[in-house]
């Protein structure tokens, strides 16, 4: 069973890499970009979602995208552990969303630890920010440019730095 899962995963990764190469090296209108990314992630992408190229993923089928999402150029999603991006999220250029890690024990270093990344509604991930495995970015939260997020980000906050820390609480006029 494990061998079958590994073989299926390898085939999906190979297909994903072919689709990504086409996506990132050819000219495409926005509807073609959505169609190719839909094939990569195995989910139809809403017409209200915009993805700027190039776009990168290692696996693809574990990405879930909401509506009215904006993903800027050079975003990398390492999604084997799962990445969920809810409605109205903004992701800045060069951001990394990573749901996979390796074990620290040298005897098991090649083994993977999979932990999902969740970006809640209306969050904003700044340019070149890195979201590490297992992190949830709360509703309306902002992750500053170049931040390295190692822990969950509460709703309605701004985090910055490496490791990212809360630097501001947002006053949300609508309910959180």
Detailed description of the structure:
The chain has two helices and 18 strands. The chain has 176 residues and is an alpha/beta fold.
Low-confidence stretches: none
Shape: globular
Number of DSSP helices? 2
Radius of gyration: 16 Å
Task: Describe this structure in a few short sentences.
The chain is built from 2 helices and 18 strands.
Structure characteristics:
five-stranded parallel β-sheet, globular, seven-stranded mixed β-sheet, 176 residues, alpha/beta
Helix and strand topology:
Blueprint: H1 2-25, H2 30-41, E1 50-51, E2 55-57, E3 63-65, E4 70-71, E5 75-78, E6 83-85, E7 90-91, E8 96-98, E9 100-102, E10 112-114, E11 117-119, E12 124-125, E13 130-131, E14 136-137, E15 142-143, E16 148-149, E17 157-161, E18 164-169
Helix pairs in contact: 1-2
């Amino acid at each position: 069973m494990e061998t079958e899962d590994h073989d299926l995963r390898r085939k999906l990764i190979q297909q994903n890499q072919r689709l990504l190469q086409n996506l990132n090296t050819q000219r495409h209108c926005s509807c073609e970009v959505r169609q190719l990314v839909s094939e990569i992630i195995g989910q139809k992408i809403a017409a209200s979602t915009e993805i700027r190229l190039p776009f990168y993923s290692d696996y693809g089928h574990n990405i879930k995208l909401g509506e009215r999402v904006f993903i800027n150029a050079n975003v990398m999603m390492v999604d084997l552990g799962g990445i969920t991006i809810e409605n109205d999220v903004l992701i800045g250029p060069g951001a990394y969303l990573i749901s996979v890690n390796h074990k620290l024990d040298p005897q098991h270093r090649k083994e993977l630890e999979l932990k999902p990344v969740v970006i809640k509604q209306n969050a904003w991930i700044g340019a070149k920010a890195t979201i590490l495995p297992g992190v949830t970015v709360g509703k309306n939260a902002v992750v500053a440019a170049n931040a390295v997020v190692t822990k969950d980000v509460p709703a309605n906050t701004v985090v910055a730095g490496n490791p990212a820390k809360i630097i501001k609480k947002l006053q949300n006029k609508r309910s959180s």
